[in-house]
């Protein structure tokens, strides 16, 4: 049985869903109206947030501008495939305030393949744990803000919070991933 807890963030309520062994399986940001793509899983409301402290502490630190390193073994994203997990693992390696293009992400995930844009975009878009698996840090090759399930306004807000300068729907200054 999955447990659910709502964290009151500066972005509004964030619904966290955890499996029976304490791994986070999904995160839903209410402000961005990100759809809950968890599918038909049985959930019950947690009696208190004690089991979610690891994740609520992470989110608190994120909103204070200094998120700690995250233990990937604490995550078990719903609807994962080996390819998606590889993409999401790469996203987890991006530090706070650092961006990556879809093209660079594709080169890192599948260096021998030249045409990964669609697959990368689908994997990024299928991320069930946004914010923690930072899919909002993926931008177009020229810094354009594209493809965020929570909408471009929320993506702008998250990137601005991380110190990224934005004008319109384009990044003005960005730290390139190394």
Automatic annotation (TrEMBL):
Catalysis performed (reactions): a 4-O-methyl-thymidine in DNA + L-cysteinyl-[protein] = a thymidine in DNA + S-methyl-L-cysteinyl-[protein]; a 6-O-methyl-2'-deoxyguanosine in DNA + L-cysteinyl-[protein] = S-methyl-L-cysteinyl-[protein] + a 2'-deoxyguanosine in DNA
Residue stretches making up the Methylated-DNA-[protein]-cysteine S-methyltransferase DNA binding domain: 82-164
Domain of life: Bacteria
GO molecular function list: methylated-DNA-[protein]-cysteine S-methyltransferase activity
UniProt xrefs under Gene3D superfamilies: Winged helix-like DNA-binding domain superfamily/Winged helix DNA-binding domain (1.10.10.10)
The keyword Transport is assigned to this record: no
InterPro entries linked to this entry: MethylDNA_cys_MeTrfase_AS, MethylDNA_cys_MeTrfase_DNA-bd, MethylDNA_cys_MeTrfase_DNAb, WH-like_DNA-bd_sf
Keywords assigned: DNA damage, DNA repair, Methyltransferase, Transferase
EC number: 2.1.1.63
Recorded family membership: Belongs to the MGMT family.
Name by which UniProt lists this protein: methylated-DNA--[protein]-cysteine S-methyltransferase
Species this chain originates from: Facklamia hominis
